[in-house]
Every structure is written in structure tokens, then in C-alpha cells.
Design a protein that fits this description.
Chain lengths: 217, 198
């Protein structure tokens, strides 16, 4: 294992995204797009008819389970890997807000003036403060909420007591919808941020090869 | 809070320090460098390191003397001696100090990584008299200590991981107020700068 990791050190490159993370990422990307499309078809069956309601529901449920399994792949990988530090809480609030502010200023105008990136990306600290906060919310708050509300609506009878506890099926459905909107916004911003590398394709390429060119972050 | 293992590399050749930094930073270590023994000893007074690498041949204080002083100051810190001049005499002197190992130049990323892992995992040997025989190795105790250390590290990692969403929520709630304060401060500073220049 050590030998393998050592071989992954290329001159001028940093091995930023290990294989399990890349597999998880691309399954998620494809799954989320399909979930969103089938979700819109289910929700607005009277407006769109790309497929029948039943087919959309079936595909949505199946992909939902793939995404749940994928979520546990992500969780298992990070819990057992030293790269877990990427998702660690930042305990020093002053440092966090200062760095967050610096990053916000960079995204607001520094990036357009070609200024140096304020965050030095490392395999064990690859997210800048804004990304770190976003991914913590997406992966550890919104993701589990979407999984639980999705499961409740998948089998209303089985999860009757949970639904009652949450305040009824309308509440569960509304929460699922709100998190869906959050995910749509996240994916659009994520895809846009992806083109902000040295070349528009740089960060996309990284997510296939795992390697980031030095100076690209 | 910094949970990354702290590594100090002492070598008068800055390239060596940079090589260690490049290899070990990728593996989750935080690497500091010093170009002389004097600089390193000053650094060690204010910062605690988990592992120190020192070159043996340096102008001024040599690596053995540096290791000796570090061992006197922080006996629990593992020290690895880097050498291109591995004479038996030097190795014997360093062994007496209880150094964790020797690594000979030229160094490759694999050697740097494996010697770092080995030095951090092995218990630090107490300095002993040159003619004193080696103490019998207590394998069980070592395994227990290493397992306890690994469990502690795992618990800390998982704790920080699961604390993350709660702390993230607290930061999100505080973010508008902190953001407003920061922009107000920036505007005030800009205003003051403008006034002082005019």
C-alpha cells in the first residue's frame, strides 16, 4: 500500500483525489442528475411526459438506493482513511472566519485579477474554508436529510411512525423538495467552479486522473 | 487545533528540506525546515515536534550534537540522522543518544515516507551508556502502545468528523454577523487611510 502510494507521487503533480473518491464522485454526479430529472417528472407529471409516472418513480427509487450505497462508500472511505482531515471541523473560529473572508474576497475579485489563491491545496487539506463549510453541509447535513426523507416517501407505510414524527407526509415532501433545490444550486455552482482552473478543463481532468498540477490550486 | 504530525528537517542544503516537505506534506504531515542546528534548537524551544530529521554534516553544530541537544531537551522526540557519511563512529555516537535511525543520501520519496512512518511508530529509545547491552524488547507492550495510539488517533479523527456538521451550522448562523463586521472594519480602515492621505 505504501509502495503504491509512493509511486503515485509524480514530479510537478499532487495526488489529490484517490480512486475511491473519484468513483464515488462520478457515480454521485450521474446519479444526482438522474434523480433530479426523474424527481421533476414525478413532481410535475402533469407538465412533463418524458416517461410515465411509474417508470420515473421506479428509476428514481433504484437510483436513490445506488446513491445511498454510494454515500456509505464515501463515509466508509473517509472514516478509515487519513484523508478524513479534509472534512474535519475547524475548531478555531477566528482562523476560520479570517480564512473564509480571504477566500470570499478572492472569489469576489482577486480571481479575476489573477491574484494568488489564498488556500494552499494539499491532499489532506484540499478544501478552502468556503468549500469545507459547503461540503460539510452537503455531505453531513443535507445528504442524510435527503436520504431519510427519500426513504420515508419510498415506503410510506413502513415509515409511518417516522412520518408522523416529522409532522406528516407534506412536511417530509417539502423538506425533500427544499433540499433538492439546494442540491440543484450546489451542482450548478460546483460545475461552474470546476471551470475556474488554469484551463476550463483542468479541474475536470483532475477528477478523472486524480492528479492536480502544481500551481493549479 | 493541528492534528497533523509535525516534522522538522534540519539540513544546510535547502533542497533536502524541500524534498521532505514535498513528499511528507502529501502524506498528511506538516514539515518545517531549519538550515542549521542553532536555528532548529531555537525553533524547538517554541514548538513541539513529533519527529526530527537532522543532517550529520553541517557547518557549525553537526548533526550528532544537534541530536544530543534535542534529546537532552525533549527525550521523547524521535530523531533520525541523515547522512552521506555514515561512519561507524558517528553511528555509534548517535546510537548512544537513542536516535530512532539513520537514513543515507540519496533519498527517494519511498525512503523518506517509510523512515518517517517507522520512526513515528516505534517507541523512542532511552539514551543508554555505550557499553550497556540493549534492553530486551517487550513486544507485547510495544504492540499495546501502538494499538492504543492508533485507537486514540482514530477516535480523534472520527470525533472531529462528526463534530463538523454541528460546528458548520454554528458558523453558518454566525456568518452574516461576522461578515458584516469584517466588511465594516474594511470600510473603516479604507476611510481612515483616505483621511490620512488627504
Amino acid at each position: 500500500m505504501q509502495a503504491m502510494q509512493a509511486n503515485q507521487t509524480h514530479v510537478g503533480q499532487t495526488y489529490l483525489h484517490p480512486l475511491p473518491v473519484r468513483i464515488w464522485h462520478w457515480i454521485n454526479a450521474l446519479g444526482f442528475v438522474l434523480l433530479m430529472l426523474t424527481g421533476v417528472q414525478i413532481r410535475y407529471a402533469d407538465l412533463f411526459s418524458v416517461m410515465t409516472f411509474e417508470s420515473a418513480l421506479n428509476v428514481h427509487n433504484w437510483i436513490g438506493f445506488v446513491i445511498i450505497a454510494n454515500y456509505f462508500l464515501w463515509l466508509g472511505y473517509y472514516l478509515t482513511s487519513d484523508r478524513i482531515s479534509n472534512y474535519h471541523a475547524v475548531l478555531n473560529a477566528k482562523d476560520f472566519f479570517n480564512n473564509y473572508y480571504r477566500q470570499a474576497v478572492y472569489y469576489s475579485y482577486g480571481i479575476f485579477r489573477g491574484e494568488k489563491r489564498p488556500h494552499n491545496v494539499q491532499p489532506h487539506d484540499k478544501f478552502n474554508p468556503m468549500q469545507r463549510l459547503t461540503y460539510q453541509v452537503i455531505m453531513m447535513i443535507s445528504g442524510p436529510i435527503q436520504i431519510v426523507t427519500g426513504l420515508m416517501m419510498w415506503d410510506v407505510k413502513r415509515f409511518e411512525s417516522w412520518i408522523a414524527l416529522a409532522g406528516g407526509i407534506r412536511v417530509v415532501s417539502t423538506i425533500h423538495m427544499l433540499v433538492f433545490i439546494l442540491f440543484v444550486v450546489f451542482i450548478l455552482v460546483h460545475a461552474y467552479m470546476g471551470v475556474l482552473g488554469r484551463k476550463p478543463s483542468t479541474h475536470y481532468k483532475e477528477m478523472f486522473t486524480g492528479y492536480a498540477e502544481d500551481g493549479d490550486h | 487545533m493541528n492534528i497533523k504530525p509535525q516534522v522538522l528537517v534540519i539540513d544546510d542544503d535547502a533542497v533536502v528540506g524541500r524534498s521532505f516537505d514535498r513528499v511528507l506534506s502529501e502524506k498528511g504531515y506538516e514539515v518545517s525546515t531549519a538550515l542549521s542546528g542553532e536555528e532548529a534548537l531555537k525553533d524547538i524551544e517554541s514548538k513541539e515536534y513529533d519527529l526530527v530529521f537532522t543532517d550529520i554534516k553541517m557547518p557549525g553544530m553537526d548533526g550528532i550534537e544537534v541530536a544530543e541537544r534535542i534529546k537532552a531537551q525533549c527525550p521523547w522526540t524521535p530523531v533520525v540522522v541523515i547522512t552521506g557519511y555514515g561512519t561507524e563512529e558517528n553511528e555509534a555516537r548517535a546510537s548512544v543518544l537513542g536516535v530512532s535511525g539513520f537514513v543515507r543520501k540519496p533519498l527517494t520519496p519511498e525512503i523518506i515516507e517509510s523512515i518517517t512512518l517507522k520512526a513515528l511508530q516505534e517507541p523512542v529509545e532511552e539514551p543508554r551508556a555505550a557499553n550497556e547491552p540493549e534492553a530486551p524488547v517487550e513486544v507485547m507492550a510495544e504492540a499495546k502502545t501502538s494499538a492504543l495510539r492508533a485507537t486514540g488517533k482514530f477516535a480523534k479523527n472520527v470525533g472531529l468528523f462528526f463534530a463538523a456538521p454541528f460546528i458548520a451550522l454554528a458558523y453558518i448562523i454566525a456568518l452574516p454577523a461576522v461578515g458584516f463586521y469584517m466588511f465594516a472594519k474594511l470600510a473603516y480602515e479604507a476611510y481612515q487611510k483616505k483621511n490620512s492621505s488627504s
